[in-house]
Amino acid sequence: MRNFRNNFKKNRFRSNSDRYFKRNDTNKNSNTSLVDNGEFKRKKNGRNINAPKLIEKYMDLAKEALSNGDKILSENYFQHADHFSRVLENQNLSKEGKKIFQENANLSNDEKENSVKNSKIENI
Predict the structure, then answer these.
(1) H/E/C letters for each residue in the chain?
(2) Which of 37, 76, 92, 112 is 20 to 30 A (C-alpha) from 15?
(3) What is the CA radius of gyration of the chain?
(4) Pairwise CA distance, residues 96 & 91, whole Å
(5) 62 close to 74: Cβ distance less than 8 angstroms
(6) What is the pTM (predicted TM-score) of this model?
(7) Is pLDDT above 70 for 78?
(8) What is the CA 40 to chain-centroid distance, rounded?
(9) Within its chain, how far is the Cα of 20 from the centroid?
(10) 51-55 contacts, C-beta under 8 A, 24 or more apart
(11) More confident residue, 74 or 102
């Protein structure tokens, strides 16, 4: 119990702005705000979802629950499978979008090279 009181005494003399930071000056320059950063980028979800495997899993579970006579549980599993089918569709659309973006970037680079070559020919 004595340790608790000692810790309380240490912490009560901190200023309000210093309350959430460590004392060892590791966060000295971390007072920047999001506005100062210029751009706010959304953090991507770190999970790598294997959607086809999950769709198959929940479809099998739904069929098994339906064969056991539990319609409510089978509907729940069908909804899970439907969710992961939509996730798979979004993944495929994003892959196609990235391909199109890369193709457009490659085309624009080729167009830039051609315009540079044409401008050199015109200058001669």
Answers:
(1) CHHHHHHHHHHCCCCHHHCCCCCCCCCCCCCCCHHHHCCCCCCCCCCCCCHHHHHHHHHHHHHHHHHCCCHHHHHHHHHHHHHHHHHHHHHHHHHHHHHHHHHHHHHHHHHHHHHHHHHHHHHC
(2) 37
(3) 29
(4) 9
(5) yes
(6) 0.49
(7) yes
(8) 13
(9) 27
(10) 51/84, 51/85, 51/87, 51/88, 51/91, 52/88, 54/80, 54/81, 54/84, 55/81, 55/84, 55/85, 55/88
(11) 74
As given in the structure block, the two tokens for residue 51 are: 């959607």
Q: Which two tokens stand for residue 120?
A: 């050199």
In whole angstroms, give the CA distance from residue 59 to residue 77.
7
pLDDT of residue 76: 97
Closest CA to 59 of 76, 47, 44: 76
For residue 17, what are the CA distances in angstroms to 6, 31, 37?
21, 10, 21
* Domain ranges within the chain, ordered by starting residue: 47-124
pLDDT in tens, 108-120: 766 666 666 666 5
Asked whether 92 and 55 are in contact (CB, 8 A), the reply is: no
